[in-house]
UniProtKB/TrEMBL annotation:
Residues 37-231 form the BD-FAE-like domain. It comes from Streptacidiphilus alkalitolerans. It comes from the Bacteria. This is Alpha/beta hydrolase. Coiled coil: none annotated. InterPro entries: AB_hydrolase_fold, BD-FAE-like_dom, GDXG_lipolytic_enzyme. Transmembrane segments: none annotated. One of its GO terms (molecular function) is hydrolase activity. Residues 1-32 are annotated as: Disordered. Keywords: Hydrolase.
Length: 275
């Protein structure tokens, strides 16, 4: 599937499920892309779970958080508090290695302060990521596994991670040439050229995470094959992680972020109770 085909699918999703603007937009850094949209439960009730929804687009600047607005709005209507971050991407100033990882790291460390300032005091935080965002969500949960000298290392962990057709293994993403060289563009080289970067950036190399992970993947995904989640699940199980893989028959790549698709109840199940 070409980039133009992706654009058509994403535009169709936004037209079918138009979303109102977020309740708030906050900054987590000085850069124009270091912002996060916040949505509160529509009924005004306090949310016990904060969903951090990380968008995909093969880490490229051509794709921003706008295409996740329908899903974010649906999650807020279901009773969740939702944070949708933007981050520097390949093709934007400072994007790629290491800026993209700096942003995700700073964001997660700032979450409590940002959400508390808007009256969000959730008991649980679940990272949800689609495609390249699935990679970033898993990586954010794995930062406690980084070497002690890494500026990205933290003891913070989410309560769970949900990967939606995620690029869960950067090594496989590179070998399979997903997104026409997207992983090499992100890290400044392929796995043979810069193995030390892959060792720090690949969730598959940082197991065990120590948090529950749910992998939702469509059987008809041509962008990120379902074999990606199968491989990650096998690695995680061997490492002793609690991991669950759900393959959705007939589902393609973007159906996983469509609140009107058959993937929606599986996502709600993975997130647990909103109230």
């Amino acid at each position: 599937m070409s980039a133009s085909d992706d654009d058509v699918l994403l535009q169709s999703l936004q037209e079918r499920s138009p979303a109102p603007p977020p309740d708030y937009t906050a900054r987590y850094g000085p850069g124009p892309e270091q912002i996060v949209d916040l949505r509160l439960p529509q009924d005004g009730a306090p949310a016990s779970t904060l969903v951090v929804l990380v968008h995909g687009g093969f880490w490229r600047a051509a794709y921003d958080r706008a295409h996740t607005a329908p899903l974010a709005d649906a999650l807020a209507r279901a009773g969740f508090a939702v944070a949708v971050p933007e981050y520097r991407r390949v093709g934007s100033p400072g994007g790629g290695w290491p800026g993209t990882f700096d942003d995700i790291s700073i964001l997660t460390e700032s979450l409590h302060m940002i959400t508390a300032a808007r009256g969000i005091r959730a008991k649980r935080t679940v990272l949800v990521g689609h495609s390249a965002g699935g990679h970033l969500a898993l990586w954010a949960a794995a930062r406690h596994r980084l070497p002690p000298g890494s500026t990205w290392r933290t003891e913070w962990r989410p309560d769970a991670v949900v990967s939606l057709a995620g690029c869960a293994s950067l090594a496989l993403s590179d070998v399979w040439n997903l997104g026409r060289g997207a992983t090499a563009s992100l890290l400044g080289g392929n796995v043979d050229a810069v193995p030390e970067r892959y060792a720090l950036a690949d969730p598959g190399a940082l197991l065990p995470l120590g948090v529950p992970v749910t992998l939702l993947h469509g059987s008809e995904d041509e962008e990120v094959p379902a074999a990606m989640s199968r491989e990650y699940a096998a690695l995680a199980e061997r490492a002793g992680d609690p991991v669950r893989l759900v393959e959705l028959p007939g589902m393609e790549h973007f159906g996983l972020i469509d609140p009107g698709s058959s993937a929606w109840p599986y996502l709600l199940d993975a997130l647990g109770d909103a109230g």
